[in-house]
Design goal:
With about 425 residues, this protein is of the alpha/beta class. Helices cover about 45% and strands about 15% of the residues. The chain is built from 18 helices and 15 strands. β8, α11 and β9 form a beta-alpha-beta unit. The longest helix has 24 residues. The protein is globular. The termini are far apart. The relative contact order is 0.13. The model has no long low-confidence stretch (mean pLDDT about 95).
């Protein structure tokens, strides 16, 4: 099998990690059990550009057991778990093209090797694979039945493409599913981002002035956890309703120019570009720590930071680069501005990824059943899939809920009763 991973002899540790995560992914396991019998993806070529983690490995296993020919590549140069990649190749017969720390050239070479699989279904995290199909591999775009996108940044790119009438095939916005963003983004990003920052820096969160750029679901999740650890949390926003919500949730809300003067730890989670810029770096206090948990490292204007510095950056600790500005203030950038929760930690806990990946697995089955029937647009995940995943998750947690009585069903279906 063709593959490109760091070292195949890492496979034993990777297998342990994959199976450990599987223990906490009961919904995906139940779907995999059904898929292994019904084979809904039999003979289907699937290429996925995702973070190569233990949780992703269990999604790949599920697709493979469903009969798909699966090829994986990384969606971020610093998010690959090399032992997991090795185990997928050696133990599960799944082709992987991903190496931790790969350069930009290798990153795109791997994306193209995944596309050489001639997929009819693609999975994406950030839309880099789909973008390749819309720019340099346009001939391959014609065979795509549909793609799935699981991150906010990717959905933003795809909706822009749809608006400009550039989209070539249907895309499912998995990120916008309630079973994804309400849990994965909020609880997963919240916990794993705190984990990544602490692993990278060993900072004490209590009493720290933490500036959170963006109060979407990821920002909410991180802000909630930072406050829970005793941090003084400040929110910056460009959207009035989110800013109002942050204020009513009890957080200080101010422009980044004001926050830059007082913040000690800065985190971006917006899906946008240059959220922290030169004008903000100049205002920061000595020793400010800057990190990103959005998909791309463009949220922090790193070229501007380099230009403001009087000497070349210096790595003072693994994942921590020191920039000394011309005014002698030091700014510490974590993980080169890449995803802190994956570059310095292990990404989201398996339990929350269980729902996100279960949704994607069921969506793949849905796509095959509706081949040729989906319009070229960005689609929401069907409600029935959301309900199925949430019911399975509740069952795995031994939680029962009420059911509507016949009288209640009738009441909700009519409008005759009033005051």
């Amino acid at each position: 099998m063709k593959h490109d991973v760091a070292r195949l002899n890492l496979a034993p540790e990777g297998k342990k990690r994959i199976l450990w995560a599987d223990n906490d992914m009961p919904v995906l396991a139940a779907i995999r059990k059904r898929f292994s019998k019904s084979k809904p993806l039999k003979g289907t070529n699937v290429s996925a550009c995702l973070h190569i983690t233990a949780e992703t490995a269990n999604l790949a296993r599920t697709l493979s057991d469903a009969g798909a020919n699966v090829v994986l590549c990384a969606s971020n140069p610093l998010s690959t778990q090399d032992d997991v990649a090795a185990s997928l190749v050696r133990d599960f017969n799944i082709a992987v093209f991903a190496i931790l720390g790969e350069n930009r050239s290798t990153y795109y070479k791997h994306i193209n090797q995944a596309l050489d699989n001639k997929p009819v279904i693609t999975f994406d995290d950030g839309a880099d694979l789909v973008n390749e199909l819309h720019t340099r591999r346009t001939k391959d775009a014609g065979r795509i039945i549909a793609s799935m996108e699981e991150t906010t940044t990717g959905v933003i790119r795809l909706r822009a493409m749809e608006k400009m009438r550039l989209l070539r095939f249907p895309v499912i916005a998995v990120n916008d599913a309630a079973t994804k963003h309400l849990f994965d983004n909020r609880y997963g990003t919240g916990q794993s981002t705190v984990d990544g920052i602490i692993r990278a820096t060993d900072l004490l969160m209590a009493g720290k002035k933490v500036v959170v750029a963006g109060y979407g679901w990821c920002g909410r999740g991180f802000a909630m956890r930072a406050r829970g650890m005793g941090a003084i949390v400040i929110i910056t926003e460009v959207e009035s309703i989110r800013a109002l919500e942050a204020a009513m949730d009890g957080f200080a809300v101010m422009p980044m120019k004001e926050a830059a003067k007082v913040g000690q730890l800065f985190l971006t989670l917006t899906g946008n570009k240059n959220v922290i810029r030169a004008e903000h770096f100049r205002l920061m206090t000595d020793g400010a720590v800057v990190a990103n948990s959005g998909h791309f490292n463009v949220e922090i204007d790193i070229p501007a930071l380099k230009k403001l510095s009087k000497k070349v950056k210096r790595q003072v600790r693994k994942h921590v680069d020191e920039y000394v500005l011309k005014n002698n203030k030091r700014i510490f950038l974590l993980c080169e501005g890449r995803l802190i929760n994956l570059a310095a930690a292990e990404g989201h806990p398996a339990s929350v990824m269980d729902m996100s990946f279960a949704t994607q697995a069921l969506e793949a089955e849905y796509i095959i059943k509706r081949k040729g029937k989906l319009a070229v647009a960005v689609h929401d995940v069907p409600v029935e899939i959301e309900q199925q995943v949430s019911r399975l998750k509740l069952k795995s947690m031994s939680i029962d809920i009420d059911k509507l009585t016949a009288e209640q069903v009738e009441y909700l279906a009519t409008s005759s009763e009033g005051t």
